[in-house]
Specification:
71 residues; mainly beta; 3-stranded parallel β-sheet; 3 strands; 32% strand; globular; LRR_dom_sf
């Protein structure tokens, strides 16, 4: 599912934490114009099966923390 459109209107947003099992460029489109200081992305067990390699390329953040599934 895409990130909620309302996040794209939060110009003062400094931290965003997300959990995802699949990530596509269209999923993060609504927040690509924001300048978020820190993004935390927790990936589910099925992550990597059908991902868009460029899905995080357009994020504007100072710090991107990615937690990969164990195993």
């Amino acid at each position: 599912l895409p990130i909620c459109q309302e996040f794209g209107n939060m110009s003062q947003l400094e931290f965003l934490g997300l959990s995802a099992t699949q990530l596509q460029k269209s999923s993060v489109q609504s927040i690509t114009r924001l300048h978020i200081s820190k993004v935390l992305l927790v990936l589910g067990d099925t992550y990597g099966e059908r991902e868009d390699a460029k899905s995080l390329q357009d994020l504007k953040t100072q710090s991107l923390h990615i937690v990969f599934p164990a195993g």
